[in-house]
Amino acid sequence: MAVCKPCTKNHYLSQKQNLKPKEVELPLDRFVFYDEVYYLQRKGSFERTIFQSLKFENERDLAKYFCLGQRTLANHLKNDPPDLMTLVPSSPKASPRPYHASFALFGKWEKLWKIRRDTNLRKVSVDRQSSLGFEKRFFHAKKAFKFTKSDRIMEGLHVLIVDDIFTTGATVNEIARLYKQAGVRKVTCVVLLLSGGD
Asked: Which of 3, 127, 103 is CA-nearest to residue 53?
């Protein structure tokens, strides 16, 4: 899994309290469009360090560590498997970072459910969410994404959004809103890492 056994035992197994999927609690003070959001890891100093190596130093094997727990979550979703999966685009065009941290999880589930990937979602803003404060992230997300083809039929589908990190939830919430507007029945979000922020 690209991280040595002692480190895995010290960090991953100690935080795995039970075998149930870990669902993010939905905020009560804002309107959310996704139906469920799950995370596979919670961000600590160890996770932050190896996540930075994966994301910015192209250490692709480290993605395996962040996929720990994905089988349990897949079993949880098997009663209502997704019909369509999408990766959250990180930039309007190909970025210098060639590897999206969520590719490993996406690849596993694409084979498991034999479903298609939606490449219709595009980021239209050049600004990065990571450089914005809490409130500004929600205003930015509102105009940051769009579908390239508005005539695609999505009525009644269950869509799975895969992202690398959940900080405020602004990005996945806005993408979920776009899918709900397009007529999807259910939106489930899965993130590799839940930030320890707000």
From this structure: 3
Rounded to whole angstroms, the Cα distance separating 112 from 82 reads 11
Q: Output the pTM of the full model.
A: 0.83
Separation of first and last alpha carbons in the chain: 30
CB atoms near residue 137 (< 10 Å): 20
* Model pLDDT for residues 36-85, shown as the tens digit of each residue: 989 888 888 888 888 888 877 878 888 888 888 888 899 889 899 999 99
Question: How many angstroms separate the CA atoms of 66 and 19, rounded?
Answer: 16
CA atoms within 13 A on the CB side of 5: 0
At 186 the three-state DSSP class reads strand
d(CA 168, CA 121) in angstroms, rounded, equals: 20
| pLDDT per position as a tens digit, 114-153 | 888 888 888 887 666 665 666 666 656 777 788 887 666 7
